[in-house]
Amino acid sequence: MTKTVSTPRPTEILRFNTCGSVDDGKSTLIGRLLYDSKSLMEDQLEALERSADITGGGQVNLANLTDGLRAEREQGITIDVAYRYFATPRRKFIIADTPGHIQYTRNMVTGASAANLSIVLVDARLGVIEQSRRHTYLASLLRIPHLVVAVNKMDLVGWSEARFNEIRAEFEKFLPRLDIKDVKFIPISALNGDNVVDASVHTPWYPGPTLLHHLETVHIGSDWNLNGLRLPVQWVNRPNNPTDPRLHDFRGFSGQIAGGIVRPGQKVMVLPGGQVTTVKEIWTYDGPVAEAFCPQSITLLLDDDIDVSRGNMIIGQNHLPGSSSELIANVCWMHQRPLVAGKKYWLKHTTHTVQVAVTALNHRLDISTFETLPAPAELALNDIGEIRLRTASPIFFDGYETNRLTGSFILIEQGTHATVAAGMLLPPREVVRPDATDFVI
Fold it and tell me: Mind listing the pLDDT tens digit for each residue in 325-382?
């Protein structure tokens, strides 16, 4: 019998993105974080010094740590999403440096889609502009739980407390209209490092933490949905290693937990068939464990030999998902060709792909006013709107506000296989019945 052992929970990983308008200092801020936290290797430091010649003047540019494309360095703007990784004794971090220009709104959505926290940079000289509002709204739409408004370039306004409070007040006028509960305002100078890693002597009027300290201590344990088990099956694991008795006749179902907690002995249901069985063992890369939780990647062994394949979903018997072929979703359109009603695409939801038709465009959002424009003729590149969809077969999902993993999807163009939209599902109206294989409203 395989011995199951308890394992300590892994070190927390905070995923965050930087956003804001062009030249607000997003890439410089990340460079400063990496540089001052001693998170750079020698070869990275050498490459940073070599890249100084590209930007002119021979001066080291911290933004070059994330702006890797030559076009980005020559123009001094971020074009594509850049990911960087670093760690402190308290936490590991995954950073997405996202573009600020309105033309690259789709890139910002891509980079922020998995973030726990979003940093919106504001140039202290310019204050709150349209892109500040746009990216704050997108953070709300993507249900990013934590927001930091970093008022940058405070050195260029003489470290004025009045200017900082003025920008904060302007943000607080429209924040109540958005669904963001945890907001922190921090005055910084990314170029000089004030209040980024080390506290600044220029802001005696600011009693709060530095940016890094806040990133290390913000509570993210409740960011994931742990109420209802969701395991979209990625693949069926059959190693069949004759030299290892543990793997003889091994048949497990692998995937990333999208919600909830699972333990051996727990009753589960497999969708869409509706078969009920019991969890026999839980395996990770390090071996069997006594429990697993979102967002760990695991392999489940079940007591019964039932038919399970990629695209199926293993769920618990509490907090059941919905099921429907008629969907309503908010989408960010990401393709040059506009979205119009009647078009057909592939919809990829967790590990399941199904054909879908867009049946209606409900409204388009005006980012400048946060007002909705009903029944638009189309959604153009970078537009955000609400649409209706009909899938060829029902999918099992939660509303995006409940579970960001089982409530999100992408649309893929048939023929070209281009990703054309990122979508967030509204709450379902149909719920899986735990005692049957069909579904009811």
Answer: 999 999 999 899 999 999 999 999 999 999 999 999 999 988 767 788 999 999 998 8
Q: Are residues 207 and 237 in the same domain?
A: no
Count up the domains in the chain and report the number.
3
CATH of residue 307:
2.40.30.10
Q: Do 53 and 165 lie in a common domain?
A: yes
State the pLDDT at residue 70: 39
- Are 72 and 180 within one domain? yes
pLDDT above 90: percentage of residues in the chain: 53
> Taking the CB of residue 177, how many other CB atoms lie within 10 A of it?
10
Q: Is residue 136 located within the same domain as residue 51?
A: yes
pLDDT (tens digit per residue) in 155-189:
999 999 999 999 999 999 988 888 888 999 999 99
Q: Are residues 293 and 354 in the same domain?
A: no
Identify the burial level of 68 via C-beta atoms within 10 angstroms of its C-beta, where 0-12 means exposed, 13-18 middle and 19 or more buried.
Answer: middle
Instruction: From 249, 283, 315, give the residue that closes a domain.
Output: 315
Is residue 111 included in any domain, yes or no? yes
Range of the domain at 284: 230-315
Please report whether residue 222 resides in a domain. Answer: no
User: Which of 188, 217, 246 corresponds to the end of one domain?
Assistant: 217
